[in-house]
Design brief:
The chain is of the alpha/beta class. It has 2 domains: about 160 residues, Rossmann fold (3-Layer(aba) Sandwich); about 120 residues, Orthogonal Bundle (N-(1-d-carboxylethyl)-l-norvaline Dehydrogenase, domain 2), CATH 1.10.1040. About 55% of the residues lie in helices and about 10% in strands. Helix 4 runs parallel beside helix 5, helix 10 packs across helix 11 and helix 10 crosses helix 12. Strands 3-2-1-4-5-6-7-8 form an 8-stranded mixed β-sheet, with helices on both faces.
Length: about 290
């Protein structure tokens, strides 16, 4: 199979080597190839083209590994030169809305388009990094990545753009948790209770992640006023200990907002389901779904 990789950066080169080892014919494309890319191409006996149209016209699969800011323009340029039986794989960290625009354009042309999101640190786990995919032609993409030893998991009932959206939301969660962990454990270290904090948090992993997160959502719309007091006290104590406080003010602001909304228009039930809690939060914040 002939695979054209647009963007000879870390992502593109990560998958180029195992695909080449699996017997695929690899063609690289980069407008400004780095010395590393040039060295890589020399090792594998490849040329690096600077013309997208020249590369994609003869490829069975085109994989876009460019920056998210240019993903749509690159996709549109590539799709215009691809043959109709080819597969386009978008591995950019792009706005899901732009991926959906590109996927719609691909559908008009009769070209299969798959959105593939990278869910880990590719610099550490390389082609073994977990991937999430959605779109027309996903089965073909799963087979393609499997030939490189890469785990591509489908988004159930997903369409192109869903994988990118889930990656962004995952980043909201993990990066927010990372920031909160740093703030919390720095304070614990200063007070000499780091080891004991692990014990104090041990009950959290007794429930499954969906159950734990669901409980946070359900109880937030009922107990935010009380929990606001705990957040305010926690912030006061951290500031009294001369610790840097960046995350808790944002947490306090969210709890203050929910507490005010509960006071003016409380939920209809004191034991809402997750869906009822989310519906109330959308309505309270004047956001349509």
């Amino acid at each position: 199979m002939k695979i054209g990789i647009i963007g000879a950066g870390e992502v593109g080169l990560t998958y180029a080597r195992p695909w080449s080892s699996a017997g695929h014919d690899i063609v690289l494309c980069d407008l400004k190839p780095s010395p590393r890319a040039q060295e890589f191409a020399a090792q594998l006996g490849l040329d690096i083209s600077t013309s997208i149209s020249d590369v994609v016209s003869e490829c069975d699969v085109v994989v876009s590994c460019v920056f998210g800011t240019v993903s749509l323009s690159v996709a549109q340029q590539a799709l215009g030169s691809m043959h109709r039986s080819a597969l386009f794989v978008d591995m950019t960290t792009a706005d899901p809305a732009q991926i959906r625009i590109a996927a719609a354009h691909a559908m008009e042309l009769g070209i299969a388009y798959v959105d593939v999101a990278i869910l880990g640190a590719i610099a550490l786990t390389h082609e073994k990094t977990n991937l999430l995919g959605a779109g027309v032609g996903l089965d073909q993409a799963i087979t393609l990545f499997a030939s490189a030893g890469a785990p591509l998991k489908p988004v159930e009932d997903g369409v192109a753009g869903d994988a990118a959206a889930l990656k962004i939301l995952r980043s909201v969660f993990t990066k927010g948790l990372e920031a909160l962990t740093i703030e919390c454990f720095m304070a614990a270290e200063k007070q000499g209770v780091t080891g004991k904090l692990h014990d104090a948090l041990s009950d959290i992993d007794q429930a499954s992640l969906p159950d734990f997160l669901g409980a946070l959502i359900r109880t937030h719309v009922v107990h935010a006023p009380r929990r606001l007091k705990e957040v305010e006290e926690a912030e006061r104590q951290l500031r009294a200990a001369d610790m840097p406080v960046a995350v808790l003010p944002g947490v306090k602001g969210l709890f203050q907002r929910t507490a005010s909304q509960i006071e003016s228009s409380p939920p209809a039930t004191t034991a809402p389901t997750v869906q009822q809690a989310l519906d109330w939060l959308f309505e309270a914040n004047g956001i349509s779904k």
